[in-house]
Amino acid sequence: MPKLGMEPIRKDALVKATITEIGRTGSLDVTVSQIAKRAGMSSALAHHYFGSKEDMFLAAMRHIMTIYGAEVRGALGVAQTPMARIEAIVVASFSAANFRREAVGAWLNFWVLAQTVPQAKRLVAVYQRRLKSNLLVGLRPLAGARAEAIAEGLGALIDGLYLREVLRPGAPDGAAAAQMARDYLAAHLAATSLDING
Amino acid sequence: MPKLGMEPIRKDALVKATITEIGRTGSLDVTVSQIAKRAGMSSALAHHYFGSKEDMFLAAMRHIMTIYGAEVRGALGVAQTPMARIEAIVVASFSAANFRREAVGAWLNFWVLAQTVPQAKRLVAVYQRRLKSNLLVGLRPLAGARAEAIAEGLGALIDGLYLREVLRPGAPDGAAAAQMARDYLAAHLAATSLDING
DNA sequence: TTTTTTGTTGATTGACGAGTCAATAAACTT
DNA sequence: AAGTTTATTGACTCGTCAATCAACAAAAAA
After folding, report:
1. Among B27, B125, B191, beta carbon nearest to A116
2. Chain A nearest-CA residue for B122
3. Tens digits of per-residue pLDDT, B44-81?
4. Which residue numbers of A have CB closer than 8 Å to B's CBs?
5. How far apart are CA A77 and CA A83, in angstroms?
6. Residue whose CA lies closest to nucleotide C7 C1'
7. What pLDDT score does A197 carry?
8. Full DSSP string of B100-142
9. Could you read off the pLDDT of A18-60 as tens digits, one per residue?
10. What's the alpha-carbon Rg for chain A, to the nearest Å?
11. C-alpha pair distances (Å), A76 with each of A83, A146, A165, B113, B181
12. How far apart are CA B27 and CA B190, in angstroms?
C-alpha cells in the first residue's frame, strides 16, 4: 500500500525516534533497528531514506537546533528592551520543549558526537555562535565592554546547566535553571553598574 | 619473563591508556585491544586484570577523580581565608593536570557513561557533592544565605567550561577558564554585598 | 623437586549490528 | 498497457569486538 509522498513523513518520524532513543538510552549506541522500530518501520527503510546512521544523527541534531532556534526567534520577536531580549533567550533555553529529558540527553550525546564527526562539530559551533551573538545584542547596551565576557560566561553556564540536568533525578526543572541564569546576569550587571558608578 | 608484582603496574598502565584513548578518539567506542596496545600488552591480559571493559572505564574515572581530589585537597590545605579556599578550588579545577585535553574529553564521555552505568553515576555524584561542599565552606562566610545558590551556579559553570573546552580549537586555556569562574564569583559577591549595604 | 601461583598471549567463540540486495507491490506516466 | 518511480521489507553479508580458553613460562612455596 505505497502511499506516495511518504518520504518527509518517514524522515520526520525517524528523526524524532532518533532523539527519543538516544535520550532514552543515554547513549549513541542505539541501533538503527531500535530507531526504525520506534518509528514504525523496518531498518532497511531507515537506511533507504537516510543513507547511514550518522546521517540520522545529524538530522536529529538539526531538528533539535531548529526547534531551539525557532523558539528563540519567536521570543526575541516580541522583546522590546535589551533586558527583555536576554530574558527571552534564557526562557527559551529552558522551555519545556528544549529542556525535556530526551532532548537534553540527546544534546549531550551530540556534543560527544561532535568530537568525532566534523559535520556535528560544525552544528554545535553554529549553535554557540548564534547564542553568543543573540546574547550580545542585548548585553552590549547593558554592559558595554564587559558584554563579551558576560555572554561567554552565560553561554557556558547554560551549557553547564544542561549538562547537569542529564544526571539530575526527577523531572527537569527549567524554572530553577532559568533562575540560575538570571542570577548570573543580575550579579554581573549589578557589578558592572557598581563599577561605573563608583 | 614473568616478573612478579606486575598487577599494579599493568593496571596503572591500563587506566592511563584508557583515559588517553577515550580522550584521543573522543568517544567510548574504544576497543579493549586499542587500550591494551597503548598500554603495551595483549587484550587478553587487560581482561585478565580487569574483568571487563566497563571495569576499565570505572577505574579510569576513579583515577581522574583521584587526581582532581588530590590537587584540590593540596591547594585547600594551604588556604587561610574563605576567599583563598574558593580560589584554590578554581585553580585546581583548571590546572594543567586536570584541564588537559585528554582528561577533559574523557570526563565528558564519563558523564555520558553515567547515564547508563549506575556505578559511574555514583562517581559523578560524589564529585558533584564534594565540589559543592568544598565551595560552601568558603562561600558561607562570604555570601551567607546565598552561598548555596552561588555554589550550585559556580559548579554548573565549571562543568560548562569543561564541556566547552572539549570543542574549542587550540590548546586548553585554563587561565582564561579560571578567570571566568573568578568573574562569576566576584560579580555574585559584589551583588551580595551591595544588597546588604543598600 | 614437584606443585602452585602469577604473568602472558594467540587463537577462538559467539553475538551483534550497519549496510546491501532482491523481491514485491502500488501508484504515477506515457 | 507497458514502463517507471516510490514504498517497503526479509534475508543476507561482512566486519568487529568483548570475552574466554588453552597453553606456555617463570618464580615461589611446599
Report:
1. B27
2. A167
3. 999 999 999 999 999 999 999 999 999 999 999 999 99
4. 25-27, 29, 105, 108-109, 111-112, 114-116, 121, 124-125, 128, 149, 152-153, 155-161, 163-164, 166-167, 180, 183-184, 186-188, 190-191, 194
5. 13
6. B2
7. 45
8. SHHHHHHHHHHHHHHHH-HHHHHHHHHHHHHHHHHHHHHHHHH
9. 999 999 999 999 999 999 999 999 999 999 999 999 999 999 9
10. 19
11. 11, 22, 25, 36, 28
12. 41
Closest C-alpha to B137, from B97, B177, B89: B89
CA–CA separation, A132 and A128 (whole Å): 6
CA of B147 to C1' of D16 (A): 51
A72 touches strand D (CB under 7 A): no
For chain A, first and last CA: distance in Å? 75
Contact A25 B163 (CB under 8 A): no
Other residues' Cβ atoms within 10 Å of the Cβ of residue B27:
19
Number of H helices, E strands in chain B: 9, 0
Q: CA-CA distance, A36 to A32, in Å (whole number)?
A: 6
With cell 587526581, the residue in question is B67
Residue in B closest to A153 by C-alpha = B180
